[in-house]
């Protein structure tokens, strides 16, 4: 079955969009939602086999280390220990969603998901504390790091902070709100929402080619895999049968996943009014959250678990950072050289424009050899006024040539002498 496409798109990409080289676009727009079974598996296999553009991961590392100036010990390097499911579109595996960079097709973890992982760990710590004072202190740090809105302080079952504090929620909330208002220098009524003092950046996989990792990094071009989920009793789950029977035909769902072994670089940076200890706490919670809760969908089934490998890869990261700094210095040197050359060119152009035209011709004729200069002399009558003036000025300076021509070819020399005498002021030729 052909994919539903506009005529111009079909003419460009083919009936199944097989000419689309961007796997993010192919997965998001050109996967036939009606395809089932082997047709669906073949379509997904073709998409995950499309190559990604590795320039994005190199550019992102350069942004972190040279533009944002992160130190290697400020970055969290975590290796994916199992397959990762992200952006499954409301949790439906049939939608076959995957979080891929729109331009390069590289899998990445959005900053919102990174922040949610760290916050989940913080809330878990909040639930483990026992006294109202301890809970209010931890609540104060959670609110400053991750921010809040009005719903975060309500007495609702959906409020994870209230659930973590349990019966101590009213007392811990009151103390925390008082501390937050004092810290931010405003009344609590003026603080209905707060963006948070730590910014969690998206995480992209970086290739290190290291041999001492818990798992081998996936081969280039094999960063995505197909995952298969089998429902052995689909009719029973739909309520069509009263009991699960072995006679049912299993329902197989195929969907893409990120292959294990990727090393993702996680980064958090301070925003306004961020105390250093808050930034350290946020990074610590993120590390624990990745190892304890994981990221993405179906983490309870073993997907999306990470292991901190920062200590193992920090020497590699330091070498990469040094290489990037040297490359940036060389790029800056070349850029300045180009700018300096352009400035010199403009100065020379302005200088040439400020010199009279006849002087350009004078300099040109002075630089000529005898034969080219003689060729110009023979065309004297057809020269422009600026060319004639430049010629007689050059002839005056080429005294030996002028004397020789005046002696050997007086009939040619006489019109030049008369023209030179007619100028104001006149020019005296030898």
Please give a structural write-up.
The chain is an alpha+beta fold and 430 residues long. Among the domains are: 51-218 and 259-311, no CATH class; 357-422, no CATH class. Helix content is 50%, strand content 8%. It has 16 helices and 8 strands. Strands 3-6-1-8 form a 4-stranded antiparallel sheet, sandwiched between helices. A two-stranded antiparallel sheet has the order 2-7. Helix 5 packs across helix 10 and helix 12 crosses helix 14.
Query: Distance between termini?
Result: 95 Å
What is the helix/strand order?
A: HHHHEHHHHEEEHEEEHEHHHHHH
- Helix count, DSSP H or I runs of 4 or more residues: 16
Supply Rg: 38 Å
What is the molecular shape? elongated
Tell me the layout of helices and strands.
Blueprint: H1 7-13, H2 23-29, H3 37-48, H4 55-67, E1 76-80, H5 111-128, H6 132-146, H7 160-165, H8 169-184, E2 198-200, E3 204-205, E4 224-231, H9 234-237, E5 251-258, E6 263-266, E7 268-270, H10 276-292, E8 306-308, H11 310-354, H12 357-366, H13 370-378, H14 385-397, H15 399-408, H16 410-422
Helix pairs in contact: 5-6, 5-10, 6-8, 12-14, 15-16
């Amino acid at each position: 079955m052909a994919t539903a496409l506009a005529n111009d798109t079909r003419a460009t990409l083919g009936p199944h969009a097989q000419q689309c080289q961007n796997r993010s676009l192919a997965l998001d727009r050109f996967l036939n939602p009606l395809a089932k079974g082997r047709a669906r598996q073949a379509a997904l296999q073709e998409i995950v086999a499309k190559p990604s553009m590795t320039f994005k991961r190199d550019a992102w590392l350069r942004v972190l280390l040279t533009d944002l100036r992160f130190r290697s010990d400020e970055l969290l390097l975590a290796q994916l220990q199992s397959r990762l499911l992200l952006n499954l579109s409301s949790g439906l595996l049939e939608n076959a969603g995957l979080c891929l960079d729109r331009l390069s097709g590289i899998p990445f973890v959005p900053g919102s998901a990174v922040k949610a992982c760290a916050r989940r760990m913080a809330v878990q710590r909040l639930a483990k504390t026992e006294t109202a004072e301890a809970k209010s202190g931890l609540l104060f740090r959670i609110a400053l790091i991750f921010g809040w809105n009005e719903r975060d302080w309500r007495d609702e079952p959906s409020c994870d902070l209230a659930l973590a504090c349990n019966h101590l929620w009213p007392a811990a909330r009151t103390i925390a709100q008082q501390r937050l208002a004092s810290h931010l220098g405003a009344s609590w009524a003026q603080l209905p929402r707060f963006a948070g003092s730590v910014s969690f950046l998206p995480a992209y996989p970086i290739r290190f080619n290291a041999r001492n990792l818990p798992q081998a990094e996936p081969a280039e071009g094999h960063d995505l895999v197909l995952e298969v989920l089998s429902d052995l009793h689909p009719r029973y789950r739909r309520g069509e049968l009263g009991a699960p029977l072995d006679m049912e035909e299993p329902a197989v769902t195929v969907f893409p996943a990120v292959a294990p072994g990727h090393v993702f670089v996680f980064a958090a940076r301070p925003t306004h009014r961020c105390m250093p200890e808050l930034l350290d706490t946020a990074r610590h919670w993120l590390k624990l959250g990745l190892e304890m809760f994981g990221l993405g969908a179906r983490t309870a089934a073993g997907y999306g678990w990470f292991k901190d490998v920062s200590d193992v890869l920090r020497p590699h990261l330091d070498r990469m950072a040094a290489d990037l700094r040297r490359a940036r210095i060389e790029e800056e040197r070349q850029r300045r050289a180009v700018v300096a050359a352009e400035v010199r060119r403009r100065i020379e152009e302005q200088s040439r424009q400020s010199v009279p035209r006849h002087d350009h011709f004078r300099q040109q004729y002075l630089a000529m050899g005898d034969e080219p200069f003689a060729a110009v002399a023979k065309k004297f009558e057809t020269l422009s006024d600026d060319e004639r003036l430049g010629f007689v000025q050059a002839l005056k300076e080429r005294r030996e040539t002028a004397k020789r021509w005046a002696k050997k070819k007086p009939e040619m020399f006489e019109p030049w002498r008369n023209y030179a005498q007619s100028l104001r002021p006149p020019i005296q030729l030898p």
